[in-house]
């Protein structure tokens, strides 16, 4: 850069000019360029994290679908087990027909299995509730990530405007210098 005030030259970081304003302007431009590189790096990291979260989200969805399928299979097996136990009880009562005492023992076994089944269903309901809470927390985290991504886009847009403004200022300064040189 050529200084018209003192006829000195600025090259890179080395200033051969007695005008501090030119050196400050060059240092300011270098500082802005460094910040633009840092922001670009941060944006690329945010994009990578976003992709990882999308992958994790698809894994959670896949896990949920498998859990639903397992639950349906368990429900079918539970119904089959209940039907089988009912058929067994009927067959035992009809076949043995030993009397009320035998029927009482069979009923006692069924009650025990029903209690176990109820305990298992209660545990399954608790586990399902915990999964739903986990999914709600994950969904909230994804929403927050979306807010960060929007903020990053806004910052990127602002930086592009600043970059364009600095380019226009630089070109205008060059044209003014060229015009002044031509007039000399």
Q: Show unreliable segments.
A: none
Order of SSEs: EEHH
The percent of residues in helical segments reads over 70%
User: Mean pLDDT score, rounded?
Assistant: 82
The geometry reads as rod-shaped
What is the radius of gyration computed over CA atoms, rounded to a whole number of angstroms?
38 Å
Give the termini separation. 17 Å
| Strand order in space, largest sheet | 1-2
According to DSSP, the number of beta strands is: 2
- Percentage of β-strand residues: under 5%
Number of helices: 2
The SS-based structural class is mainly alpha
Main pleated-sheet profile: 2 strands, antiparallel
Family: Belongs to the BLOC1S1 family.
Protein name: Biogenesis of lysosome-related organelles complex 1 subunit 1
GO cellular component, one term: BLOC-1 complex
InterPro entries: BLOC1S1
Descriptive labels:
184 residues, 2 helices, mainly alpha, single chain, two-stranded antiparallel ribbon, 88% helix, 2 strands, rod-shaped
Describe the 3D structure.
- One of its GO terms (biological process) is endosomal transport.
- The protein has a two-stranded antiparallel ribbon with strand order 1-2.
- The two termini are 17 Å apart.
- The chain has helices spanning 20-96, 100-183, and strands at residues 9-11, 14-16.
- Helices cover 88% and strands 3% of the residues.
- The longest helix has 84 residues, at 100-183.
- It has 184 residues and is mainly alpha-helical.
